[in-house]
Amino acid sequence: MAWLKEFPSLGSDALGEIRRTVDGAFRGFTREHGEMMERLFDPLRDFLLASERLLTQSPWPFVVGGIALIAWLASRSLKIVVGTVITLLLIGFFGMWGDTMKTISMIFVCTVVALVVGLPLGIAMSRWDRLQRVINPTLDVMQTMPSFVYLIPVVMLLGIGRVPGLIAVVIYAIPPVIRFTNLGIRLVDKDLLEAADAFGSSTWQKMHQVQLPLALPTIMAGVNQTIMLSLAMVVIASMIGVQGLGQPVLKAISNQYFTMGIFNGLAIVGIAIIFDRVSQAYGKRLQRHLEVVHG
Amino acid sequence: MAEQQPVATPAPQAAPAGISIRNLYKIFGPTPEKFLGPVREGMSKQELRDVHGHVLGLRDINIDMPAGGIQVVMGLSGSGKSTLIRHINRLIDPTAGELLVQVNGQPVDVMKMNQRELLRFRREQTAMVFQKFALFPHFTVLENAEYGLQVQGVARKKRRDNAMRWIERVGLKGYEDNYPNQLSGGMQQRVGLARALSNDAPILLMDEAFSALDPLIRSDMQSVLLDLQQEIGKTIVFITHDLDEALRLGDRIAILRDGEVVQQGTGQQIVLKPADDYIASFVRDVNRGRVIRCRTLMLSGARVDGPDVDPSLVIEEAARQLSSESKEAANVVNSKGKHLGTISMSDIIGAIVPPNPEPAPEAPSAETH
Amino acid sequence: MTYTPHLPLAVLTSALALSACGKKEEAASAAAVAPEAAVAQACGKVTVANMNWQSAEVLAHIDNIILSKGYGCEVELVPGDTMPTLTAMMEKGQPDVAPEAWINAVRQPLDAAVKEGKLHYAAESLKDGGVEGWWIPKYVADANPSIKTIDDALKHPELFPSAENKGKGAVHNCPSGWNCQLTTVNAFKAWGAAKQGFVLLDTGSAAGLDGSIAKAYERKQGWLGYYWAPTSILGKYEMVKLDAGYPHDKEAFETCNAKAECDKPVKTDWARAEVFTVVTDRFQKAGGPAVDYLKQRAWGNETVNALLAWMSANQATGADGAAHFLKTQPEVWSGWVSPEVAEKVKASL
Question: What is the CATH number that goes with domain A21-288?
């Protein structure tokens, strides 16, 4: 009866052996190729540092003005612009400016990377069903695997700091862009694709004149989700030394500084709301003439 | 065979192309080639579907479409007419058969073109108008109209001018910067028409183009089309399920049923000599007065006391004239003044009234409207 | 398979039979413990802090096994960390036991709590004390024999490069929540490392700190930062502790260097860290003989380092390591408990 109570598993020796072998193999890999992988990510690292320098070292009125301008161009809503400016001013007033700028810089780079990698992948997925069958489960893993699991090998390969932090955030946050791009393109009205074909469009013309513009509102929804998820990862990234709002939150957790945690948490929420409203407003504007107004 | 002679067109056009469809077969399913043989030998649509899980789209289609005229392909849903028209620009690939089009004086088989040739063919030789308009919602009316030219890479100003010309011609001047979702159905289809016409392609494919419009607008659009055709003389292939529309527009009509051609000919031929009971019931309620021409009913004979009528005049018109002048018979005189024969009112009435229906058939016949 | 009224009955019967088997086994062990029932009543429930570094973790599991199997306590392991656990013990009296409390950081408030009678010091669990400081890899020390003290190391930022700050050196700090973060920040300030071209890197978490050492060691790169013994990292990767160059200044440490707000930190070595087991007053009174065990239980760094090295090599968890230790080194731990308790513990392994 004992075997019913305790699940028959591989003995601890066998399990230990498996673990040791895989670990050893990975360490060997990092020894061999770690240097090369680090060099591979150098341009990304420089981009990260440049973006952070831009945001933290520019005089703050310029930064507030610049962000307000972007908010205006994207949303054309006075309410959103005013809300953005007030939130940023409050954040600065409570002494969280530097950290917030670092976080915004990280989110910005993460979104750019997500678009550069995710858009082509989503487009490819929309064209080949087989690819979709392979990528979908991969995306599921990326979104549910606990981040620390793949942080460990990343830290071993690339050390601690911004680049591994970025990788962790991107892995978690990129699936929505890929999924929504795929979905948006597949959902384009088949009649329109037929019309494009009937007039002799090549595949590339069809993609960039018909499919992508019509999929754009859906893609924007994906970008919006990606931004939200990257903000959610900010605290986890701080666990491998990434600076920004995550660090004070982590410090607050570890030292049980209640108020500090709340303030920085609210700053993260504030940034999240700004990004969310602005990107949604932009998405809605894109949809304007896609709606049927006249019966 | 065209009832209307194409008028010399002012704008430079490519020579109008005739289309010949030969032995066209289309089977839908995973392995269509396997069933080509059995279908050629006569396997029924039912058997193909129930036993083998394939759908018979088209069987042995042979149609000659006149250059510069309007060819109507008619049938009910499931008859294969939409499938057929899509073979012309190869939006659907056939299982067997050829489709010859006159391009620059040479007959070319569309089914044998490679991808590059096909793209060129679609850009330069054909243009299409769709039942549900298929306008790009993110383009303005102008951008929609110039789409075909943009795909060809025509320079901005030139394509803009061309598109504007056709937008005005279909009566949408002033709307060029609107978006499709701001226009009514009829206006949207005009944009669709303008888009197709801007291409200046010799072949115009219209897939139930007016079926989604309400009857008054539909009638309007038919007049617009007939008007344009006087000017442009394109080879138009028009799909519809409406017999009245077919008779009004079509120089020649082909009727499809379950993927096969049941009858083809002029409207008059079909109305007067339906090939089988199916078509007979189709045409039973049509307004024969507007279809039958004087030359068909005239009898040879000496001149009588009555008005002169043209041989191509529809007998309804002739009846109107006789009635207004209170005469019993008219003289059929051709354009050169030669007396061809006479036509009497009683004959006209006899032809206008539908024949006695046959003893009721087993299955109720389909009515078209 | 057709549905019969007998089917659910059969399932029910077999389920009852199975649980009856289980009950039989429980009844058997209950009988063995019966003589200790009186003691079990005395020990009752106890929460033990399982702090998130290896030596504390394995010690917590050793306490778990001995207290539950030897003394019949109902043990619950709760996760912990120096500051949060000790604060909670001082304020709320929970958890009951902190097996490996590094008390230097919280000396004053802790002494105050002990004076009030809320908490009590039990054994000095790491009897050799903990060793804190700034360490460098052995291969760097061997290649640069002139580097012996912190001052020497700080003269060479190029030997300890920072990946993200070109041209600067990096000193790796320990994570938030650990007292060493404060002392390292102050040491960084005291030694003027910034002026000498260094940046202080926050590693974020224990995993981050360990990961940075592992990565540097695998690639034979330079690394400089805070670490402590006894640990498995130091067992696995040979490191050399830099001499502070200055003796330990107790007063400066307690009033300034160990605090967050410290304007003028002083160059001083870290004290030999005192590591005690701390228990709450409630458990001291209610625990019975179990408390005596906690007053006896102490081990030296050599033992700990060896055990940690074994755990690292075998990827063992704290529970595995505790079991291994109890099985293979009875000569060390039987001295902590009475012979009957030792027998019970040995029997349960």
Answer: 1.10.3720.10
